[in-house]
Amino acid sequence: MTPKANVALKQSDMIQLSAYAERLGADELERRLATEEHLREVCGKSQARGVFRLEHFFDFYTLIRLCLKISGLWGRAHRNYFKIRVEKNEVILPGLPKAFDGFRLLHITDLHADLHTDFPEAVKRTIAQLEYDLIVMTGDFRTCTFGDHSGATVASIDILRDRKSTCLAVLGNHDSIQKVPALEDAGIQMLLNENTFIKKDGERLYIVGIDDPNFYKTHNFERALASVPDEAFKILLSHSPETAREANALGFDFCLSGHTHGGQLCLPGGIVLVHDGSSPRRLLSGPWQEGNLRGYTARGTGATGLPVRLNCPAEVTIHTLRCG
User: Fold this and answer.
1) What's the pTM value of the predicted model, to 2 decimals?
2) How far is CA 322 from CA 76, 90, 105, 132, in A?
3) For 297-306, what is each residue's pLDDT tens digit?
4) CA-to-CA distance for 312 and 297, rounded, in angstroms?
5) What confidence tier does 8 reach under pLDDT thresholds 50, 70, 90?
6) Residue pair 208/235 in contact by the 8 Å Cβ criterion
7) How many alpha carbons fall within 13 Å on the CB side of residue 290?
8) What 3 state SS string does 21-67 have?
């Protein structure tokens, strides 16, 4: 571990986090910790000067807020933030074991759970009456990309407190690895370049989770696929859909992602105005296909920067798996 990566962590934290080297990968853990420390240093100094330069959050979102208020759209966009839509995606998957025909995944992503104090209750109300067999989460539990993560962690755990099934999750580009112990203590199984399987009537469904491929670049498919048979049916949890081409080449059958927010603030018809360019537009929202790989990019359950959405509803998604 580099000295720089150690600066902001107590010795007890380092002992706890060192255990994750076996899971995430030693190089990936070192890179993540060093990058998180760099964010704290750079962003902390920028804020002290009154300017937050990373991703231009302060300047950009102040401008967006001003435009929405001047146009009279702020109130509508803010109300939309709390109107979380339940999307239903029935997907036909060649090779799906027959035992899993009709298996339901509840997909939650991009909670940014600490953005507004009333938001966790809105999510809880939305998912309380849903029926599902497994919860999968594709990252971005918190709003900021650096600093204290405890508020978002507590809010995320509260949202899932009354869940009806196992929950599997991966980290996103806004998430610190330091939140993993608390999430796992609450029963949320994190996949840090790892895999697990569900067994039903003697057949197996593998869930493979990679670490953030977007900002941290700490995803490692080789580690994540360790011990998974080549012929196994595999579902990939990837925070960003930018891994679609590689996932197809590696023989994944279904990929679930978030990250894009579907644009969050869109033109009528859901036309995306701004995105980070990491994925082609056809992968930014809804179902898609890359070669033999079926995929789905959710618009996000929460919002980033500002608690607003326009022409781009927040969502939780029920994916019903069907044999092809």
Assistant:
1) 0.91
2) 37, 7, 12, 14
3) 999 999 999 9
4) 13
5) very low
6) yes
7) 24
8) HHHHCHHHHHHHHHHHHHHHHHHHHHHHCCCCCHHHHHHHHHHHHHH
